[in-house]
Write a structure and sequence with these properties.
The complex is a heterodimer of chains A (349) and B (553). Chain A has 2 domains: 2-94, no CATH class; 125-342, Orthogonal Bundle (MetI-like fold), CATH 1.10.3720.10. Helices cover 67% and strands 4% of the residues of chain A. Chain A has helices spanning 2-27, 30-40, 47-56, 63-71, 122-157, 162-176, 179-191, 213-243, 246-253, 258-270, 272-295, 301-310, 314-342, and strands at 78-80, 86-88, 92-94, 114-115, 120-121. In chain A, helix 5 crosses helix 11 (272-295), helix 7 (179-191) packs across helix 11 and helix 9 runs antiparallel to helix 10. The radius of gyration of chain A is 26 Å and the shape is elongated. Chain B folds into 3 domains: 10-53 and 96-209, Dipeptide-binding Protein, domain 1 (Alpha-Beta Complex); 57-86 and 219-306 and 530-553, D-Maltodextrin-Binding Protein, domain 2 (3-Layer(aba) Sandwich); 313-524, Dipeptide-binding Protein, domain 3 (Roll), CATH 3.10.105. In chain B, 29% of the residues lie in helices and 20% in strands. Chain B has helices spanning 10-20, 26-35, 40-46, 54-57, 84-90, 141-151, 161-164, 200-204, 254-257, 275-283, 297-303, 336-344, 348-356, 385-395, 410-425, 437-440, 460-467, 482-491, 497-513, and strands spanning 60-61, 65-69, 98-100, 106-108, 111-116, 122-127, 169-170, 175-176, 181-185, 188-192, 231-237, 241-246, 265-269, 307-321, 360-362, 401-407, 429-435, 449-454, 521-529, 533-534, 550-552. Chain B has a 4-stranded mixed beta sheet. Chain B has a 4-stranded antiparallel beta sheet with strand order 5-6-10-9, with helices on one face. In chain B, helix 13 crosses helix 15 (410-425). In chain B, 56% of the residues are buried. The chains are: A mainly alpha (349), B alpha+beta (553). The interface between A and B is large, with 38 and 39 residues. Chain A: Pfam families: BPD_transp_1. Chain A: InterPro entries: MetI-like, MetI-like_sf. Chain A: One of its GO terms (molecular function) is dipeptide transmembrane transporter activity.
């Protein structure tokens, strides 16, 4: 087991390295650097100004050197500025190179860099924003998982019944409606003066500090609806399959009440497949929050990703990528390990 | 009031007569007179009116929190600031020498007043007495000199003040001209210009001209917020939220001069660029005041029972061919006939209707607005689609496919679509390209044919100097015309707006004849806020004067 987990971590680091290099390469393409210079300096700088702005900040170095600096395996740049001061990756800007400035400052040293959009340390931003998204995700899970399982089990209990058809239709409709459609519809119907219900708020900005039912329900339900239909379909399929097993038929023929057959004999076996699906929903949720957080102006991880990408905030994007890789791979690791416990027929080593 | 002049500029008295004779309206009169050094109150006095302003102050209660929706770009050195929103965040603690008012007048702030000699080459600036920095230092003429020196430093990448104060910059050293600004005593400066420049005072009111302390290190202005203003930043999170609070330890000079500040706390929250999100914000009662209401949302906001304020502005959209841009090895817009044809194929009133729902005034393709003091009435541009096609055929460009590029945002997109439709009606091939802001602003000045939003300047010559003079950084049309440059130089030396408008007529005609731009309309701008908010009226240059804001008692 330990070897299995270690191997998984090895893969995780390798994946993170590959992905960050791809992101690094793309964000360091010449037009993207120009964009960075213009958002940071002045939107109306001339080409000569852009070139000198980039050179003064070490952006014109070789891509591998820059990537090495970010990783912390190549010494950070030190560049003399036109006005005689020094600017370095590890000490910002100073009259002379400070004695206590470290030579290396990258991820290996625990320095994740500085976000050019938010003017703050990347690590702090990611922590803060991930926390906010965590809050959103928690409530999404609380709404989505129980309702999806109930729907799925009810539908799968008696395959082909009217109840099954009805619930299946609902889950297909919700899962076939992307967040950017359902979100807009929900806002229009429940939050705007256009319909006039105004039960909820059409923006979740205040929910970052003080989440209430009123300001948090719409974003939560928008993401939850989408995932819910999918999980419900999986649960239904799994439940329907279990219900056709010999031992279930035997139990029913023996005269065990149907309720007990479902709860005692079918349920645990039927939940193995949905467990994996639920774990796989985490990466999917990361995807969904990008849209929903932007739509509801909830400034979490997804919104941060959009801001970082549209402003070419290199180090923040890299940080976001690393976190995303870890979220995806760790949830898969958990689902693999959990599977072993749920299903005694499977061994990992 | 303390800034009332003993000497009134002769031209101001002349303008007063013009106003009384009905030749110019009040806004024009105020811009002209105040730019000549006449205080707003005195200017109103010249035309027998009383200055508005303090009446509203009595209704505002002391204290309270106001929540404003506004995009929040990261703060930067004020002189390189490229968005009005940056200045609105810092305006609570970084003040200006002069302030541009809603009614078109210029009001002295950190200056108490100024005098201009008759040919606008010598300015005498009077620094306001009794102003202190919030660290206790007195505000003196030295501080003003320090700031003018900073503004004139052309070596700083993106310093747009250097362009605004071009007459003060030595082209050799790229610094402030030696000896141009003299400190006479603690509260008086004398500026001697090598050539006349009437835009100087108006430039001091522009948003990058925030006055900083001598210890300021050109970094984040909120890091060590030394300023003269009544507020202090307590939270600055770019793109998220900016909060300023009343600085209780600082006695603000303006309280006894202009009244205010009223609020204890002002929160700016970023709701992104989608107007639907702004609507959601004010509908959910998360904000009390919007930054700007645009397009079809104006009507929706009206229906919500919000207070609406509008300002007539010289803000505009310019659809311009770039005369030096190369497409496939040729310069399609180097020929004036091609450019003029494009303008001839467009009916500006249709563009106003389709592109901006009629919320403005029709413009005349020369970028000088009727609210500019030197505006000269010339013939409206010709609308002649058939003539346009004939011109293109003559130039051998009838089959050329134009690519009209614009920003992916409300009225820019709609108006460009309307332009493209009109060009197609005239038989001209057009392809449309719509780019997101992050891509568009990278190359905005270089696109061969694109639409750009321009905010107003108080004087007509100012935008012309920024955008159409040969070789200017913001010259997006690639227009380089000696006649234009020399006419403009001449116009900028005439302090009297009436005389200046004679030359402006020639300049305006030249702009039309050269087909430099298609300029369909002047936008009026709108803002909605809750009825309880006071002092939040829309401002022609989007300035939010935080000390005027309050909540009704």
């Amino acid at each position: 087991m330990a070897g299995f987990i270690l191997r998984r971590f090895g893969i995780m680091i390798l994946t993170a390295l590959c992905l960050t290099f791809v992101v690094f390469f793309l964000t360091n393409l010449a037009p993207n650097l120009e964009k960075l210079a213009k958002t940071q300096g002045n939107a109306r700088m001339t080409d000569a100004e852009v070139t000198s702005w980039l050179a003064n900040r070490g952006y014109d170095q070789n891509i591998f050197v820059k990537y090495g600096e970010w990783l912390g395996v190549v010494p950070g740049y030190v560049i003399e500025q036109p006005d005689g001061t020094y600017r370095g990756r590890c000490f910002d800007q100073a009259e002379a190179i400070p004695d206590d400035a470290p030579r290396f400052c990258g991820v290996v040293q625990g320095d994740w860099g500085y976000s050019s959009v938010f003017r703050d340390e990347v690590l702090g931003i990611i922590g803060l924003r991930l926390g906010l998204t965590g809050k959103l995700m928690f409530w999404v899970m609380m709404v989505m998982v129980p309702s999806a399982l109930i729907l799925g089990v009810l539908a799968g209990m008696r395959e082909g019944s009217r109840l099954d058809r009805g619930l299946s239709s609902i889950s297909i409709v919700t899962t076939a409606t992307p967040e950017y459609v359902s979100g807009v519809i929900l806002i229009t119907v429940f939050a705007s003066s256009a319909v006039g219900l105004k039960w909820f708020k059409g923006t979740a900005t205040s929910a970052m500090e003080n989440a209430t039912f009123e300001n948090f329900f719409l974003p939560v339900i928008t993401i939850a609806l989408y995932g819910m239909g999918y999980i419900a379909r999986m649960t239904r399929a799994s439940m329907a399959e279990v219900m056709q097993q010999q031992y279930i038929r035997t139990a029913i023929l023996k005269g065990v009440p149907f309720r007990q057959v479902v709860l005692k004999h079918a349920l645990r076996n039927a939940l193995i497949a949905p467990f994996t699906v639920i774990m796989l929903q985490f990466p999917w949720l990361l995807n969904g929050v990008v849209i929903v957080e932007t739509l509801f102006n909830y400034k979490g991880f997804g919104w941060t990703l959009v801001q970082a990408a549209s402003n070419n905030d290199i180090e923040l994007l890299l940080g976001v990528s690393v976190v995303s890789v870890f979220v995806v791979l760790i949830t898969q690791l958990i689902s693999d390990i959990g599977y072993v416990y749920l299903n005694p027929r499977i061994r990992v080593s | 009031m303390s800034f009332v002049k003993t000497r009134i500029h002769p031209a101001a008295e002349m303008h007063a007569q013009e106003h009384l004779d009905g030749q110019i309206d009040r806004r024009e009169f105020l811009t002209r007179a105040t730019a000549l050094g006449v205080g707003a109150a005195a200017a109103y006095g010249l035309i027998g009116a009383t200055a508005p302003g303090k009446a509203m102050a009595q209704e505002a209660q002391q204290g309270g929190t106001l929540r404003i929706q506004m995009e929040l770009p990261a703060l930067k050195d004020p002189r390189v600031a490229d968005w009005s929103e940056i200045a609105n965040q810092t305006r609570g603690w970084l003040e200006y020498l002069v302030e541009y008012q809603r009614d078109g007048s210029l009001r002295p702030m950190l200056l108490e007043g100024w005098e201009v000699n008759d040919d606008a080459t010598v300015y005498t600036l009077k620094v306001r007495q009794g102003v202190t920095w919030n660290n206790g230092d007195a505000f003196t003429a030295q501080d003003v000199l320090h700031n003018i020196t900073r503004w004139c430093d052309q070596e700083v990448e993106g310093n747009s003040m250097a362009g605004r104060l071009k007459t003060l910059v030595d082209p050799e050293t790229k610094q402030l001209l030696d000896g141009a600004v003299k400190v006479m005593d603690d509260h008086t400066l004398e500026i001697t210009l090598p050539r006349p420049d009437i835009t100087l005072i108006a430039s001091f009111a522009d948003y990058p001209a925030a006055v900083v302390h001598q210890s300021y290190d050109n970094g984040d202005p909120a890091a060590n917020p030394i300023g003269t203003g009544p507020y202090l930043p307590v939270e600055v999170s770019p793109n998220v939220r900016t909060v300023i609070e009343r600085n209780a330890d600082h006695e603000w000079w303006g309280t006894e001069v202009y009244g205010g500040p009223y609020l204890d706390r002002i929160e700016f929250t970023d709701y992104g660029t989608d107007p639907a999100a702004w609507l959601a914000a004010i509908e959910s009662e998360e904000v009390d005041m919007l930054y700007e209401s645009v397009g079809e949302f104006i009507e929706i906001m009206d229906s919500l029972g919000l207070e609406k304020s509008d300002a007539v502005t010289a803000n505009t959209l310019v659809i311009r061919p770039n005369q030096v841009a190369e497409v496939n090895g040729m310069k399609p817009y180097a020929d004036a006939r091609v450019r003029r044809a494009l303008a001839m194929a467009c009916d500006n009133s249709v563009l106003l209707e389709l592109g901006y729902a009629g919320l403005g005034e029709v413009a005349e393709n020369h970028h000088v607005c009727p609210i500019h003091p030197e505006y000269a009435k010339i013939d409206a541009p010709v609308y002649d689609p058939e003539g346009a096609m004939a011109l293109l055929e003559e130039a051998g460009m009838a089959d050329y496919e134009h690519e009209l590029i614009c920003l992916d945002s409300g009225f820019q997109r709609d108006t460009s679509d309307a332009v493209a439709a009109q060009l197609r009606d005239a038989g001209i091939n057009v392809k449309r390209t719509i780019l997101p802001g992050s891509t568009f602003w990278n190359d905005w000045a270089k696109f061969p044919f694109s639409a750009t939003e321009w905010n107003m300047r108080p004087l007509g010559v100012q935008v012309l100097a920024l955008a159409y003079r040969s070789g200017e950084a913001w010259n997006e049309s690639g227009f380089a015309n000696e006649q234009f440059d020399s006419l403009l130089e001449e116009a900028m030396a005439i302090a009297d707006a009436g005389q200046r408008s004679e030359i402006m007529a020639k300049i305006e005609k030249l702009m039309q004849d050269e087909g430099v731009i298609i300029q369909p309309y002047w936008r009026s701008i709108y803002r909605h806020y809750l009825a309880k908010v006071i002092g939040a009226e829309a401002h022609p240059t989007f300035e939010i004067h935080v000390y005027k804001l309050g909540l009704s008692a």
